[in-house]
Each structure stands twice: as C-alpha cells, then as structure tokens.
Design brief:
two-stranded antiparallel ribbon; alpha/beta; eight-stranded mixed beta sheet; 8 helices; Glutaconate Coenzyme A-transferase; 267 residues; globular; 21% strand; 14 strands; 27% helix
Length: 267
C-alpha cells in the first residue's frame, strides 16, 4: 500500500495472528500496539491481560507502562499480580503471550536483562518482569522486534526467557508446560521454528522485501522455509485504525500532568 511504513506493516502483520476471543498476556511497546489493533479491527472479543492485574482491558490509547491508569480505568476487572500469574497464566488459561526483547537467538530465547557481561554490562536493561513466566506457561508465544545483527544474535548475552533452549526438543525435555515461540514478527519478515530443529527460519516476506534483506538483518545463517509466503499489505481499515490509535496516544501522552500542591503550612 502506498505510503505505508514498514513499521506499520509489521504491527498490522502481528495483529493478524491474533484470533477473536483469545486470552492474550500483553507486553508493553510493539506487542501492545499489535494486540490493541487486533481488538479494534478483526478481534473485538480478545481478552487482553497486562502484568499489573488488569483483565479484559480496552484502552483508548496505548499505555506507557503496565501501571498506566488507562489500563485499570478500562478493564473488566483488576486483580492482584499473584492472581494474574497463579490463576490465569500458570493455570494454563493464557492462549498467547505477546513479548518483545532486546535480543533473541536462533532458538527463540530472549534477553531483556543486560547487554554485555552480567557483572560489567555495557547496558543494563529493564529486566525480566513477567516475561520468563509468560514464555514458560503461555500456550504459544509471539515475539515482536525490529531485526538487526545486534538484536538477532548467534548467542545471547544473558538468557532472560526460555524459547526452545538448544532446540531439537530441549524445551519439552526440560518439562516446560507452554508451547514456546510460534512466531517472531520483524520488520524484514516473519520467522517461525523449524518443526524438527526448532531453529527460527524465514517463512514469510513483505511484498517489497527480499531474502537477502532478511539474512543481512540476522546474526546467524538464516535458513528459509521450502515455500515462502507473502505478507499481504495493510488494508485501508487496518492502516487508518492503527494511525488513529497512534495519534490518540501521542495526543494523550503530550498533555501536561497537573499535580495538586499542598497548601502552605500543611504537614
């Protein structure tokens, strides 16, 4: 579609993977945009859960964090964090865990902890949060990340969340209850695990993309599926809905915050 950016196309491609009425544990950032776009288009019955305990939330703008009041204000209910993990995630009630990460390796293991050595890191990242539990227990995991050799790496600097470990059935042998990363949505194409080796391979390209572009953006020798699919361009509805959501979000986040001042002499 003329005028569509690759970032918009990636978000729309990710949103299409979500089914109506699915229970989805949502990460902040790109995953949140994709999940809420799905809710506003083809999956109005999707149940979005955020780590702060908001269940069935329907935000009008994208949240800044899991503690954004927009999530609680628009949720069907709010429960404690232990309840979210114990009674929903660990109980097997989450269909999709939708995550982002700073690094991902060829078997879908994720790093959101440090870049460089753990004791003397180049960059210390926000950390694990609920990602390890989501990656372990969700029936399937989707990951969204922009591809580059710095983020799609041969070996993680630190493994925060387990994907398929070393592949070849290692996750199943370790007793992980969830299904692992079934799709990695990037700005160069869609990756999915090989059914036997569990190594991520290229399975779909954008209509204006190429295998060479995808391989150049990944830090390991990227294999391709026997038959590559083409990711359909955004429809007018998808693109208009995403742009309206982003515009509302920018406007909301630009508003000044007025904090009440204590009167003089008050304790």
């Amino acid at each position: 579609m003329s005028g569509c950016t690759r970032d918009e196309w990636m978000t729309i491609a990710a949103s299409r993977l979500l089914q109506n009425r699915a229970v989805c544990f949502v990460g902040i950032g790109l995953p949140s945009a994709a999940c809420n776009l799905a809710r506003l288009t083809h999956a109005p019955g999707i149940v979005l859960i955020y780590e702060s305990g908001t269940i069935g939330t329907r935000p009008d703008v994208l949240p800044l964090s899991i503690g954004d009041g927009e999530l609680a204000d628009t949720a069907a209910c709010v429960v404690s964090l232990p309840e979210v993990f114990s009674y929903y995630l660990q109980a097997g009630r989450v269909d999709v865990g939708f995550l982002g990460a700073a690094q991902i390796d060829r078997h879908g293991n994720l790093n959101s902890t440090v870049i460089g050595a753990y004791g003397t890191p180049v960059t210390r990242l926000p950390g694990a949060g609920g990602a390890p539990e989501i990656a372990l227990h969700a029936k399937q995991v989707f990951v969204m990340a922009k591809a580059s050799p710095r983020s799609f790496v041969e070996r993680l600097d630190f493994c925060t969340s387990a994907g398929y470990l070393d592949g070849h059935g290692a996750r199943a042998r370790a007793g992980a209850p969830g299904g692992g990363p079934r799709a990695v949505i990037t700005d160069v194409g869609l990756l999915a695990p090989h059914p036997e080796t569990e190594e991520l391979q290229l399975v779909a390209l954008y209509a204006d993309g190429s295998v060479e572009e995808a391989r150049a953006a990944v830090g390991w020798p990227l294999r391709t599926a026997a038959q590559l699919d083409t990711i359909a361009p955004p429809s007018a509805l998808e693109l208009d809905t995403l742009r309206a959501l982003n515009a509302r979000t920018r406007e909301a986040h630009a508003r000044p915050v007025h904090l009440p001042l204590q009167p003089e002499g008050s304790p």
